[in-house]
Amino acid sequence: MTTTMSIRELTRNGSMFGEYDYIDIEDKKSHEYKGVFISSKYAEDVKKFLEKKFAKEKKEKLDRIMKFAGKGSIYPRFNDMTASQIREQKAKEQYGK
What we know:
There is one protein chain. The chain is built from 4 helices and 3 strands; from the N terminus they run βααββαα. The protein is α+β, with helices and mostly antiparallel strands. The chain has 2 domains: about 1-40; about 45-80. The protein starts with a strand and ends with a helix. The mean pLDDT is about 80.
């Protein structure tokens, strides 16, 4: 079940959390959308969805930066390596370890 209510209604009636799966939170005066409350039984699914979405956005942003920077054009041997892996590789090359 879903419903829409104000922040004031939510704070006054905590039992509403158990009754609804999804609650839209809206400012009563301005009718501005403030957010959403998700029932605990759906919380893990929402977290997983958001983690995937944030990872995708981060990858797209990094891809745009690397496209601008010319990924691999200067040091192609360091492609797809983390900063710590690059330091280890450079130390091996420098000190012969």
